[in-house]
Specification:
The chain is built from 10 helices and no strands. It is an all-alpha fold.
């Protein structure tokens, strides 16, 4: 292999590693303090790098936010959907969903602000939302065919999918308006509430 090709690959690998470090540091700061209180200088300080080093990879804070948002969506998309339709797998799916909410909690705390203030975020969010709603509808249909859910109409499937999506999307906003802490305990509470939303649609059994 040519030396120049090896050097290019090493540089690409190093750049990728640096980007990942920036994203990781920014995510930690955004989750703890919120995007409004965190500047690119704060991210540089956390990583002990110069602003020039950060700007080589990301031109501004908005680009970092978008990169984190896309990372979250990619992780969600790569999460394997259980092949077998049963209550145990349904519960595990809830747990994974709310784990992502916890890992990227600043996005869900600030979802309305980010949507209104960032045009690129808005475009990505709309596509992701449409895709997610379709996936939830397909998931409900799968459980309906397996006899886990009671027979409901297509309209009811759409309404249930939207209810699940709205709850997942705005649970953290609700906690903030109530002055309640956003922590792993409150995230686990959300799983119990979501289970109760689903419960009337179950043909038998219960989520545990």
């Amino acid at each position: 292999m040519a030396v120049w090709l090896i050097l290019m690959r090493l540089k690409k690998s190093k750049n990728s590693s640096n980007r990942e470090k920036i994203i990781k540091a920014a995510l930690e700061l955004f989750n703890e303090f919120g995007t409004a209180k965190v500047s690119t200088n704060h991210i540089c300080e956390k990583l002990s790098i110069s602003p020039g080093n950060l700007y080589y990879h990301y031109r501004n804070k908005d680009e970092i936010i978008i990169a984190i948002f896309e990372e979250m969506i990619n992780k969600w998309d790569q999460t394997p959907v259980p092949k077998e339709a049963n209550l145990k797998n349904l519960t595990h799916l809830y747990e994974r969903t709310f784990q992502y909410l916890w890992d990227y909690r600043f996005i869900h705390r600030e979802i309305n602000f980010l949507y209104q203030s960032n045009k690129i975020f808005k475009e990505i969010f709309r596509k992701a939302q449409n895709k997610r709603l379709k996936q939830i509808e397909e998931f409900i249909s799968k459980y309906l065919k397996a006899g886990i859910f009671k027979v409901i109409s297509n309209v009811e499937i759409r309404y249930l999918a939207r209810t699940i999506w709205f709850f997942s999307l705005y649970w953290m906003s609700y906690l903030e308006t109530e002055g309640k802490p956003i922590n792993e305990k409150s995230l686990k509470e959300s799983i119990s509430i979501l289970s109760n939303i689903i419960k009337p649609y179950l043909s038998k059994g219960d989520l545990k």
